[in-house]
Amino acid sequence: MKIKFQALASGSNGNCGILTTPEGALLIEAGITRKKLLYLLRKAKISPTDLQGILISHSHSDHCRGLPVITESLNVPIISSKGTREGFRGFQSLDSRWKHITKKSVTINSSTALSFGAFQIHSLPTVHDALGANGFFIEYNDIGISIVTDTGRLLPHHLDAINKSNIVLLEMNHDIAALYRSHRTIWLKKRIRGTHLDNGQTIDALSQIDTESKVLMFGHLSGECNSPKLVKNELAKWGKDIEDFPWDCYICRRNSPGPLITLSGGDKLSSSENSLNLNSLKETYKPPKDLLSYFS
Question: Furthest-apart CA pair in the chain: how many Å?
Fold first, then answer.
């Protein structure tokens, strides 16, 4: 048995990931164009006919804007919360194809798992400003995958799912100082603070994550208020008293595919890219003085 997971894009310009198993694949979010999706599937040697369904966490455009065109080519169910489905209804006056999408939606709720083919899909409600927003905990045989982004706080059920997962995609949206020094409006800054995890919140949660072998992927980085350099610096600061990460850690890219993670028999993990090396990060760590240097 072998499963694969890859974040195809992770940021405010569009989110999409793909989970591939011997019994079919799940698309997770559809915030990219059909042209880009089909290109990336071909590159990954995944047939569109392998897709069993599309999971949508909430009705913000960076997670679902591609659905009207994508679903014209891919005749698969849309899996979402009832609130997200209501969000789709609100788009029908703008594009009649949303009516068909709404009809094709399979509703998931937070009280019971959805049995969907070979998968058990759990809703993880998030703290966000979209009706019915949630993350996902996906079980396939004895393998768990958690996707937790677009939330203002990590809640107990998020951590419970993460600690049962082999692969985790966790939000690291913004640096607080970078956010408040940005040119965004006060209203938008307050909104982001309440609906997205900052670097510090995610770093603080690391002490609550089991150290059993798993992959941690940090995603949904803000293009204006965060950067891989900032994330690496925060991780180096967190790990100053330990020798190396207890997990394989990666930073997702905003507009292109991140590492392809493969989990095969005997819980053997491999990746198309090297994971972050804590000792190397600690060697380059510098207390942040000039914030702009992290965006160069």
Answer: 56
Sign of the alpha-carbon dihedral angle for 239, 245, 246, 248: positive
Across the strands, what pairs with 139? 120, 144
pTM (two decimals): 0.94
Q: Both tokens of residue 291?
A: 């914030």
Chunked mean pLDDT (size 10), the chain, 296 residues: 93 95 96 94 91 97 96 92 95 92 91 95 98 97 96 98 96 95 94 97 96 92 95 95 94 96 84 95 78 50
Q: Distance (Å, rounded) from C-alpha 64 to C-alpha 48? A: 18
Distance CA 158, CA 150 (A): 12
* Topology adopted by domain 2-295: Metallo-beta-lactamase; Chain A (3.60.15)
CB 106, CB 116: distance < 8 Å: yes
Q: E strands along 132-289, which residues?
A: 134-140, 143-148, 167-171, 215-219, 248-251, 261-264, 268-271
